[in-house]
Amino acid sequence: MKIAYAAMAAAMLAVHPAQAQTAPTAAAQTAIVEDFKPSTLNQPGQQFPQVNSQGYVRFRVMAPDATAVKVSLGLGGRGGTTLAKAADGSWTGTTEGPLDEGFHYYHLTIDGGTFNDPGTRNFYGSTRWESGIEIPAHDADFYALKDVPHGRVEQILFPSPSTGTQRRAFVYTPPGYEKNASTRYPVLYLQHGWGEDETAWSNQGHANLILDNLLAAGKTRPFLIVMTYGMTNDVRPGQPGGLASFDIKPFQTVLLNELVPYVDAHYRTLADQKHRAMAGLSMGGFETKLIALKNLDRFAYIGLLSGGTISLEDVNATPGYRDKVKLTFVSFGSRELEGGRSGPPGGPKVDPRANAEAIKAAGIPSAFYVSPGTGHEFQTWRRSLHEMAPLLFRD
Amino acid sequence: MKIAYAAMAAAMLAVHPAQAQTAPTAAAQTAIVEDFKPSTLNQPGQQFPQVNSQGYVRFRVMAPDATAVKVSLGLGGRGGTTLAKAADGSWTGTTEGPLDEGFHYYHLTIDGGTFNDPGTRNFYGSTRWESGIEIPAHDADFYALKDVPHGRVEQILFPSPSTGTQRRAFVYTPPGYEKNASTRYPVLYLQHGWGEDETAWSNQGHANLILDNLLAAGKTRPFLIVMTYGMTNDVRPGQPGGLASFDIKPFQTVLLNELVPYVDAHYRTLADQKHRAMAGLSMGGFETKLIALKNLDRFAYIGLLSGGTISLEDVNATPGYRDKVKLTFVSFGSRELEGGRSGPPGGPKVDPRANAEAIKAAGIPSAFYVSPGTGHEFQTWRRSLHEMAPLLFRD
C-alpha cells in the first residue's frame, strides 16, 4: 500500500488547479490578438472572463476599494495573473501566455482572501467549489451539446449501511434506455480525482455528451456510467481527510457491497464480470487499480486516466489477470510525461510508455493513449473517455 | 397582459435575496445564545457561516487586507450585516436578529465588489449563483434526507426547435418507477421564480425529498415532477432579459409544444388533462396562471405559490374553469400577507384570502395555505409543495 500512497500523492499534487500549462516560447513571440469573447462557462449575462482565439484569458473583476486582486491561473501554472485597477473600480489582467485547451479551475485572491470570480460558474475541485474557465479546444466537437438523441444523467440516493448515510451517485443512461425495456446494459464505474466529487465527470468532463455523440455516430456500444463520491476518508461527515490517512477499504465497501448491488437492482444491467468496467482519473485511477485488481471476479475492463500504470509486474502479481481482464486502458496528458512528472516526487521515475509496451508485448489486451498538449486536467480525461469508450464491452 | 405584468413585477421585487425576515422586537429582548454550529449548506470542512439555536447567523471571512466586508443578509432584510476585522485578518459579524426558518440567498460586498462567501455552497437566484444559508426549521423533517426509498432526479436534454437549442429539464421519478413497468404516472410541471433556474426546486426546494417522504408515509399518490427553465425572454442566449419585456409566448411554446410531448414520449405518463398539473413559485406562479388558464384542455390542477391568486372573476372569465379544473391551490408566506405586500407596488392591494374564500364559496375545488412565519422565500414553497402534493391527482 505504501507505493500506492506515494503515487497517489504525486497525482494529488499534480491535480492542483494552477496546473494550466502554456508554451512560454510561443507566448513571448506572439502578439495578443484582440478577439476576446466571454468564456462559455460564464454565468448568464456576464462578459468576463474572456478568452481569445490564441487561448489567452482576460479577467475583469469589480472591487473599487480593493488594494490587490490576483488570479491563481497564470503562465505555466506559476505565479498567477496580477490584475490592475482602472478608474472605474474594475481590475483587469490578461494571462502572460495562452493556456492549454480545455477546462481549468481557478480562484481569485482579493486583499489576501480567497474568493471565486463572480463572472463564472463554480465546479467542485480541490475540496471546494472553484471558478472554472474553458479554453475552446480544436476538438471540442466530440463533447459539444448537439442536436442528437441525449441520454440522461440521473441522480440516485442509495442506502449505505457501512457509512450510515444515504449517498449520492449519478447514473448516465444512454438514449433509448427507457424504450428498450427488454435490453440490459453493461456498466462503467467512473471515478473523479482527489478533491472533486460525483459531479465532476458530468460538469467538467461532459461524460454524458461524449457518450451521446459517440452513440449518435455509432462508435460505441451503449452502456451505463455510474459516478459516485470516492473520497470516503472523511475526518467527519463532509470534511475530507488528508491523503496520508487514505484507506481504500471504506470506499471499496461502499462501491462493491452497496452501490453495485443497488445499481444492478434498480437498472437493467448485465450484472456479470464481463459487462462491468471500472476507471478513474488521477486518484480515481489509483482507486481503480487498488479495487479492481483485487476483485477481478467483478471487473473485466480497467481504465487508469492520469492515475498510474499497469506494469508487467502488476499483471504477474495479480492472479487471473491474463484470463479475466479484457482491456487495460492507460492514458496521460502529454505534459504529464514531460520531465518525469508521472513519477512520485523524490521517488523513482515511472515511464508509463514502457509499462504499456511491456504488457502489450506480453499479449495483454491493452491500449495506451496520450492526449496531445494537455496536462493533469479535464481535457486529458475527456479525450481519454472518448478514446476508451469504444474499446469497452466488445465481447 | 398589463395586469399580469404589474403583479409579476411585484413578485420580482419580493424575491430579492435580502428578503429574509426577522422579528425585531424579539431580537432586541433576547440575548444571543452561544451555540453556533456550521450551516448545513457549508462547503465540505468549512466552519463558517454558523447558525445558532435562535436563528442568528454568524459570518466569518478571511480577507486580511480588505477595508470593508459586508453581508447582504441582515435584520428585516434591510441594511445587511457589517463584519468587523480581527487581528488574524478575519472578518466576523452576527446578524442583529434571528432570521426566518429555512433557506436564504446572500452575498458579500468586499471592498465594493460583489462576491460569494467561500464558506457556503452556491444556489442560482437573482440571475447569479448566490451564497446560501439554511436556518434549521422546526418542521425540517418533511424535507430531510432519510432512510426511505428515494426517487431520482433525472437531467434530460430535449430538443427545442422554437429556440434552436437543446434545453435542460429535471424530472423527478418516484421510488419504484423503474420497477413498475406497466404503471403510468401523472405529471406536475413545477416552475421556479424570477432569476432562478431549473435547479432551484431540487437544490433549494428539496422537491425530491419532500415527495420521497410523503410517499414513504403513504400520504400522496406517486407522480412525476418536471422542472425546466422558465425565463425564456433572454436578450441573447444565456442572458436573461428584464421583466418589462417579458412575453409568456416563448416559454409557453417550449412547455406545451416541446417539453410536454417529449416527457409524454420518454416517460410512462398518463398523458391526459386530468393527470397533468402546473404550478410555480413567484414568477412561476404567474407563468402558471397565464399558461394553464388558457390551456385547460391540458391541465386539471393549478398551483400558485406566492405567485398571484385566482379570483372569482378569473374563474368566470375563463371558459371551462368550473368543469375542467380539479384543484386551484394558492399559497403565501404569512409575512407576504402583512402590510398588503402581496399587491403590486403603487397598485391596488390584493387580499388573497378574500379571493380564496370567494372561489371556495362558489364551489370551486380549491385550497388556500399560509406558511407561518415565512416570507417570499423557499421555506414557504417547500411547505406549499408539501401541502399541495397530497391534493393532486386524487380522481
From TrEMBL, chains A, B:
GO molecular function, one term: acyltransferase activity, transferring groups other than amino-acyl groups
Keywords, comma-separated and alphabetical: Signal
Gene3D superfamilies from the UniProt entry: alpha/beta hydrolase, Immunoglobulins
InterPro entries registered for this protein in UniProt: AB_hydrolase_fold, Esterase-like, Ig-like_fold, Ig_E-set, Mycobacterial_A85_antigen
Superkingdom of the organism of origin: Bacteria
Record's signal peptide: 1-20
UniProt xrefs under CDD domains: E_set_Esterase_N (cd02858)
Pfam family membership, one: Esterase
Protein name (record): Enterochelin esterase-like enzyme
Species, as recorded: Sphingomonas trueperi
